[in-house]
Amino acid sequence: MRIDIVTIFPSFFDVLDISLLGKARQSGIIELGVHDLRDHTHDRHRTVDDTPYGGGAGMVMKPEPWGEAFDELLGEQPGAAVAGADPLVIFPSPAGEVFTQATARALAHEQRLVFGCGRYEGIDQRVFDHVASRARVKLVSMGDYVLNGGEVAVMAMIEAIGRLIPGVVGNPESLVEESHENGLLEYPSYTKPASWRGLEVPPVLLSGNHGAIAAWRHEQQLERTRRVRPDLLDLGEH
Ligand code: 6GU
């Protein structure tokens, strides 16, 4: 997968050099390009924002630097694709569809993702409209709260998507038993020692009875989900 990010804070993404995602980049499974939006400004102050038409608080990101950045990433002709793959452009925004594990699973199948990180009160609407005439565009939110900009949201999305790409997580079986993969929260996990500071590992886990262990884990998932996230139980059959 090829991932490009446009941002006014390229160094935010330096941490993608480390951990599983860093390994995936070294092995070529994930290719990453981080692009400074200010490289597409032409004034002395490298201005990326201006006051909103119609008035109101805050600043709006100007369309011209975004237009140039996307010309470079998507090609200047309508429909022109770089390097074969049909890109999906994602703008992190609290006004977007909420990102879930299902979103991550769908996006993990894409060959090419381009993230546009907005700051301030948002990006001039014409940027979305123009990019949408040349590529598939999605606005994606991390949940019902407000961040100062899209960078942290993009980091979370890349981590959630990246670990679902074959070869990124060493043992793919570890992906199927975690929270949200079957619509439930994950069961509690234990390792050695069996007794620690007076706290015991549930005896069923030491029993060697695989059927009983699976049943206990499923019951734990249901109990946890009922208690913490009852909204998830309305969404499917468990
Ligand atoms: Cl994706 N961006 C911003 N700026 N705020 C958010 C968000 C995204 N998701 C939740 N809040």
Question: Could you list some keywords that capture this structure?
Answer:
elongated, 18% strand, alpha/beta, five-stranded parallel sheet, binds 6-chloroguanine, tRNA (guanine-N(1)-)-methyltransferase, 238 residues, two-stranded antiparallel ribbon, EC 2.1.1.228
Describe the protein's architecture and organization.
There is one protein chain. The protein is built from seven helices and nine strands. The chain is elongated, with a radius of gyration of 22 Å. Helix 2 (63-74) runs parallel beside helix 4. The model has no long low-confidence stretch (mean pLDDT 94). Helix 1 links the parallel strand 1 and strand 2 (31-36). The protein has helices at residues 19-26, 63-74, 101-107, 125-132, 151-162, 210-228, 230-233; strands at 2-7, 31-36, 49-50, 60-61, 88-98, 112-116, 136-141, 195-196, 199-200. The strands form three sheets. The chain has a five-stranded parallel sheet with strand order 2-1-6-5-7. It is of the alpha/beta class. 6-chloroguanine is lined by residues 92-94, 140-143, 145-147, 149-150, 153.
Write the layout of secondary structure elements.
Layout: E1 2-7, H1 19-26, E2 31-36, E3 49-50, E4 60-61, H2 63-74, E5 88-98, H3 101-107, E6 112-116, H4 125-132, E7 136-141, H5 151-162, E8 195-196, E9 199-200, H6 210-228, H7 230-233
Parallel strand pairs: 1-2, 1-6, 5-6, 5-7
Antiparallel strand pairs: 3-4, 8-9
Helix pairs in contact: 2-4
The protein binds 6-chloroguanine.
Subunit structure: Homodimer.
Catalytic activity: guanosine(37) in tRNA + S-adenosyl-L-methionine = N(1)-methylguanosine(37) in tRNA + S-adenosyl-L-homocysteine + H(+)
Enzyme class: transferase
